[in-house]
Amino acid sequence: MSDNTWLVVGLGNPGAQYAGNRHNVGQMVADELAARIGATFKSHKTASRVAEGFLGPGRPKLVLAKPNSYMNTSGGPVSALLKFYSLGADRLVVVHDELDIPFDTVRLKLGGGHGGHNGLRDIQKAAGSPDFTRVRVGIGRPPGRMDAADYVLRDFAGPERAALPNLLSDAADAVEAVVEHGLVAAQQRFHSPA
Questions:
Q1: Which of 9, 57, 60, 83 is deepest in the core (most CB within 10 A)?
Q2: Secondary structure (H, E, C), 2-34
Q3: The domain that contains 37 carries what CATH number?
Q4: Which domain holds residue 156?
C-alpha cells in the first residue's frame, strides 16, 4: 500500500433496522465519503463492507470500511483490515458517535481512553494500540432520565434530522482534513469557535 493510504472506519450496527440510529452516524459519514469519491461498498473478506478511492489526483487514497459486526465487536474487523492493507494504527481514522459532545459538533482526537464507548474499547484491544485518530461526531446527551443505550439506538429526531446532512458533511470534511493536512491542522480548523 502507498504511504498515502488511510483506513477510515465508520462505526455502527449492521442491518436496516439500525441504519438511521444515532449510534450509526459513523457509517453515515462513511457513506458520505464514498459518495464524494464515487466508490461503492462491497463485501470484503475482512467481515466488512469496503469502498476504495482517491480524494483526487495526487491526493490520499481512502479505504472506507463499515464492519459487518455489531458496534461492540468492531475490533476484529478493524484488526483484519489493518493487516489486509498492511497499515498501522497511525493510518487508522475511526468515525463514531459521541454522547459527551453536543449534537452538530465534530471533534478530533488522537488516542486516549474509550470513555465507555464499547466499539472503541474493542478496537483498542484488537489493534493493540489506542493511538489512532478519532473523528467524534456529537450526538448530545439523552433527554431527562433516558438510558444512554436506548438513546443511541434511536433514530435522529425531527430538528436533528434536518441538521444531519450538514453534520455528516462536516465530519466528512474533518476526515479529509486529517488525511491531507494532519491532525493538528484539522483540529485548528474544526475546534475553533464558529
A1: 9
A2: CCCEEEEEECCCCCHHHCCEHHHHHHHHHHHHH
A3: 3.40.50.1470
A4: 5-191
pLDDT for the residue numbered 129: 84
Is the pLDDT score of 146 beyond 60? yes
70 in a labelled binding site:
yes
Pick the catalytic residue from 23, 44, 96, 117.
23
The answer to whether residue 23 is catalytic is: yes
4 carries a ligand binding annotation: no
- What digits encode the pLDDT tens for the residues 104-123? 999 999 988 888 788 999 99
21 annotated as ligand-binding: no
Ligand-binding annotation for 151, yes or no, is no
In terms of C-beta density within 10 A (0-12 exposed, 13-18 middle, 19 or more buried), how is residue 81 classed? buried
In the chain, the number of structural domains is 1
Question: Is a pLDDT exceeding 80 seen at residue 61?
Answer: yes
